[in-house]
Amino acid sequence: MREFLKSTRFKVLLGFLAFLVGIMIYAVTKGGYSLSGASFVQTATKPFRYVSNGITMKMERVADRISHADAYYKENQQLKKQIGELNKQLTDYDDIKKEVEELRKLVVIKEQHPDEVFSQPAEVLGYITNDPFKGFTIDKGSSDGIKPYCPVITPEGVVGITIEVSATTSTVRTILSPDLSIAAVCSSTNTDFGIVEGTVLTAEKNTTKLTHLDPDHKLKQGDLIITSGNSGLFPKDMAIGTVKNTGFEANGLSACAEIEPCADITRLGNVFVILDFTGKKEDANAAKDTP
Amino acid sequence: MRLKTPREKRILYTKTTIRWILYYLLIFLFFTIMTSGTYTKPILLVPAAICIAIGNDVMASAVTGAVCGFLTDMACGRLFGYNAVLLTVFCVAASLIFELYLRNKFANYLWITAIASFIQCWLDYKFYYQIWDYENVSRIFYFVSLKVWVYTVISSVLIYMIYRLINRFLMPKEHLTIEEVIKTA
Questions:
Q1: Taking burial as the number of CB atoms within 10 A of a residue's CB, which of A6, A29, A49, A277 is the most buried?
Q2: What would the mean pLDDT of A36-42 be, rounded to a whole number?
């Protein structure tokens, strides 16, 4: 040891150490800037460090995945659960949004017809299989206050009438059916009265027919046909449809018009049932309205 | 059918139970299909009921016919029980015909189904449309009733295959001893 301390190697080492300390002190005096040599080395090695760092990071990630697999699995499960809850909330939100929209429509109808008592929005459960007149079933029944022969509407207009009611469902006969007759009048002229009644031919085109019109009527294409409400089966002033074309009955004694229903009967989602209205005829056994 | 051991009995009961559960699950599925959408659809429950009837005894066929009929009434918005009566009659008749006169072959099933579904469609048209004498009512027969009938006959092929598959695995087979075969020969 003594020999080493006295040797030239030791002196050289001390000198080198002093040089390094000197560099360190010099670097301190540079105030945060790299020394020119260090800067050169860093620049020269930059691309290699990129590659090297990339590989190392990947390896570290693999190692991290292996070593923390359990923790990640738990975290993953927790996140999945959270996503499930959020999705459920989103579904609830969509349902609520849909319900709010339906209720908003109901408010609009209610404002337009303050004397009428409406059911909650009723969802169409399904159309009657192979019914050429597009009858359908709704998810509200007698427990919701619905009775046979209650008018069924959408915000767009009249759809039909309930014909068979159970505790939780009701069957609706639509305005495309020849078995439902509604007293109607032209909204603009208010003089052209008739009866809206479906036929086999018009039902094929998802339209209905306004019959028993005066041959001198003033109806024209696009005119709105509304309920006249004369006999108490339907409330007054509810939109039924618009005039598509006019013509004469086969007997030539009266005129008729093809009516495009305001509501798309074939694509119904929700409908409203009018439970009560001013002028309602209680004895509605005959589902026929007269002008 | 002759049952020999308790094990054979147990297998028979299990297979029969599973078979009937599958029959009724399919009936429910057909009902669901029939009540979905707005397009013209086949009356799937008619071939299904007949398919079950041709492979089973009269009483089971009658009950199945009634169930399918009630479901058809609900799907088609008909008087509750109308189709039940019709299908019960069809199923009992089909069961008896196959038991006494016909072999359980696809061709026999097809023409029996075609006749039964045609009668069902025709009566439906008669009682629900023609009787009210609507203007141009015959169009309903040509463009709805006949269309439904054709769809029903076409769909009966698939229905037969499904039920045939169930029967192949779950229908109990009669096993005779050599002595019994000789005796019955």
A1: A277
A2: 63
Question: Computed from CA positions of residues A78, A81, A85, A90, in that sequence, does the dihedral angle turn out positive or negative?
Answer: positive
Does the beta-carbon distance from B38 to A178 stay under 8 Å? Answer: no
> What's the pTM?
0.71
Distances (CA, A) of A96 to A90, A91, A152, B181: 10, 8, 23, 71
Rg of chain B in Å (alpha carbons): 19
Angle between helices B106-128 and B45-53 (to 10 degrees): 140
Listed residue (A168, A170, A177) closest to A203, CA to CA = A177
- Complex-level ipTM beyond the 0.90 threshold: no
> Is A199 part of the contact surface with chain B (CB cutoff 8 Å)?
yes
